[in-house]
Amino acid sequence: MSAAAPGCRLRYSARAKRLRLVVKPAGAELVIPPGVDREQALAFLEQHRAWAERKLAEFRARAATATAPVGFLAGATLPFQGREVALDIVVSPDRRTYVEFDMGFRIALPATAAPTEPRVKAALFGWIKPWMADEAARIAARHAVRYGLEPRAIHIKRMKSRWGSCGTRGAINLNWLLAFAPPTVLEYVVVHELCHLRRRDHSAAFWDLVARHLPGWSQERHWLKRHGGELLRRFA
Ligand SMILES: [Zn+2]
Predict the structure, then answer these.
(1) Over its length of 236 residues, how does the chain's per-residue pLDDT go in tens digits?
(2) Where in the chain are the domains?
(3) Could you tell me which Pfam families the record lists for this protein (predicted)?
(4) C-alpha of residue 13 to centroid of ligand 1, in Å
(5) What is the CATH number of domain 120-235?
(6) Cα–ligand 1 centroid distance for 70 (angstroms)
(7) How far is the CA of 143 from the centre of ligand 1 (A)?
(8) Distance between CA atoms of 199 and 193, rounded to whole angstroms?
């Protein structure tokens, strides 16, 4: 919900007494009373944005389990960073394909391109790849200060069965589907692969190194064991 506030309707009401943000399954609505200007209203919206997003994600998660199609199809939801968000597919006003994220994914495809799953998936990968490279670089930088484990490069890839790998020449590879796991899980996989820069095994010493970076690592590993298979089945 930026200044233009897509995803949130603004409604001016003569009867309203105060600013009110209403979140329903269909979307969010900001009710603006007399005497409050647009700038104040948007500041209020910005202040309560996180709450509204959480609320909407809850509605969508509930709706998703009930009726939504699964995968990369219009009307589906995606668990972006662990929270279900909508996936909308619209016709592009020009011939370009583009992806926007604002509380949910909106993918615009040229009118000539049918919204097939591979096409939607490719468009989404094009958006997630640089996004995740940034996220992973930030995570790596945060952890590098400890023991200087710095990757030579970070590659985001479409992998079928693995979450990450560490190349022999110091580059780490990450599965783009980590975008659909909680942020702490992405952090764990980055740290796991960084630690392989020092130790190329899964010995006690390796896990000790992981724990020194990330004391709660076993919880994240457990999450992957428990939900990772489903994520791969659903999206890989
Ligand atoms: Zn490993």
Answers:
(1) 444 445 788 889 898 888 888 877 778 888 899 999 989 998 988 888 887 887 777 777 766 555 556 678 888 899 999 999 999 999 888 889 999 999 999 999 998 888 888 999 999 999 999 999 999 999 999 999 999 999 999 999 999 999 999 998 999 999 999 999 999 999 999 999 999 999 999 999 999 999 999 999 999 999 999 999 999 988 88
(2) 1-63, 120-235
(3) YgjP-like (PF01863)
(4) 57
(5) 3.30.2010.10
(6) 30
(7) 17
(8) 10
Strands (DSSP E) contained in 62-201 are 77-80, 83-91, 98-101, 105-109, 153-157, 164-166, 171-175
What is the C-alpha separation between 170 and 224, in angstroms, rounded?
24
Q: What is the rounded CA–CA span in Å between residue 147 and residue 73?
A: 43
Please give the distance, rounded to the nearest whole angstrom, from the Cα atom of residue 149 to the centre of ligand 1: 15
Cα(201) to ligand 1 centroid in Å equals 7
Distance in Å, CA 199 to ligand 1 centroid: 9
CA of 81 to the centre of ligand 1 (A): 22
Half-sphere exposure of 47 (CA within 13 A, CB side): 10
How far does the centroid of ligand 1 lie from the alpha carbon of residue 219, in Å?
16
